[in-house]
Amino acid sequence: MTLDPFVEEQIASLTLNTTRPLIVTDADEVLFRFMEGLEAFLEREGYEISLKSFAITGNVRHKATGNVVEATEMRGLLGAFFQAETHRLAPVEGAADALQTLSAHADIVVLSNVPFDRRDARAQSLLDSGMPYPLVANAGLKGPAMAALARKGGRPVFFLDDIPHNLQSVHESVDHVHLIHFVADPRLRKLVPSPEAHHISSGDWRHAADHITTTITAHG
Predict the structure, then answer these.
(1) To 5 degrees, how large is the angle CA 180–CA 185–CA 189?
(2) With a threshold of 0.90, does the pTM exceed it?
(3) Using CA atoms, how far apart are residues 168 and 37, in angstroms rounded to an integer?
(4) Tens digits of residue pLDDT in 134-175
(5) Number of structural domains, the chain?
């Protein structure tokens, strides 16, 4: 799988220290409370979501009719959600403090599948939330982007994401990355099993940061 030219351009512009560990983190449900924001948006727009599974499509209904929102309409709703809410999603508790502490020992990059036209809004939200780290807006599975980032940075390398397919993609693309399956919303965490390719599962930044720090220390 090849990188989107815009993703490649963003990664090429980064300056990473090859002598420092590298932490690459997703944003939605890792740094920002995506599901809480989506629920509030859907409620305002006349929809409701039932968290019966980790998927969004198939779990959203029109409140007036009870009809399930089909995939095409759901893509439009998600696009509208990112347009309206990217800049104001609430941060995950403890994320900013944990990353600030970790940044003394490692480079940090945010790798987010935010729509490309909302990249600047997400970057501003990171700044406003006390997380002023480089942002790479990605498209598709994250293995190729993570491989490019790992080539630029030092070791050990860590990757945090809530989507099992992204963790598996990174595992298949870069064999030395420490994988953290992180899902902030406890309701979602119960619905999605961790993939076979992971080191720890977490929804708590103190827990995740302790694991990262211990691994960095052991690496020497």
Answers:
(1) 60
(2) yes
(3) 26
(4) 999 999 999 999 999 999 999 999 999 999 999 999 999 998
(5) 2
